[in-house]
Amino acid sequence: LDPAGPLFQYTPTTVRLDPSDAKFVDIIHTHAGHLFFDFAPGILQTCGHLDFYPNGGKKMPGCRQLRVPPANRSINDLMRDYRSVGCGHKRSLRYYAESILNPDGFVGYQCETYRDFVLGDCFPCPKEGCPLMGHHADKFSHKTEKEQQKVYLNTGPSPPYARWRKEIHVRVSAPETMKGNIDIALTGTNGIRKKYTIDKGTFEPGNTYLNYIDTEIPGNVSKVEFLWKKHLGHADRGCMGAEEVTIISGENG
């Protein structure tokens, strides 16, 4: 759980965590970086069979970011400050604890970089499924097939942290090109209703726009609402509508 980075990162495997330390080593990186550059206590490099990087592994939503300390401060001063505001480091424990009772809320996607994950390049899960971050990571059938497998996902800023990734396609209908925001409101079978922005800017009639969202809504969506917000100052009085809205879930199964 966010293993130590300072004095361990990029050192020989004999002195740091690595895949040979157990039959299966899975890691949750939540405050990774370099202690003296971005004041991060966790290790950034991949060092397990499955390396999970929630939210990219460096900055956790809901945590106040630490400022880079003055260069003349001692290591004891730095660690004293860190202990008082180690929110990101402790997130690994919070995610693991929640995963025990909510395993399918932490589906990870195997990507080379976090940017690839954000852009949807690793979505949806392949036929063999996706790894689960946390307590149920050992259920992944290919968990020890390779070492240093990078896995990415997003979480929420507060409990419950679990999120479910969905791909949203919206084909628009309008009398002419219009400017504004395309929003979608989703309602789950559990009654949760949340609004998400799919795109903003200029839209052409008949074109399809897509985005990837990480929603609090598990399982199936029972209701979809198309919401249009015209940009201020746009003189056209025409209406924007949705010819079709498609939702693709990327979870296992």
UniProtKB/TrEMBL annotation:
Gene3D superfamilies: alpha/beta hydrolase, PLAT/LH2 domain
A Pfam family annotated for this UniProt entry: Lipase
Residue span(s) of domain PLAT: 176-252
Biological process annotations from GO: lipid catabolic process
Molecular-function annotations in GO: lipoprotein lipase activity
Localization: Secreted
Source species, domain of life: Eukaryota
Major subcellular location class: secreted
Domain Lipase per the UniProt entry, residue ranges: 1-161
GO cellular component, one term: extracellular space
UniProt KW keywords: Secreted
Homology family: Belongs to the AB hydrolase superfamily. Lipase family.
Protein name: LIPR3 protein
Name of encoding gene: Pnliprp3
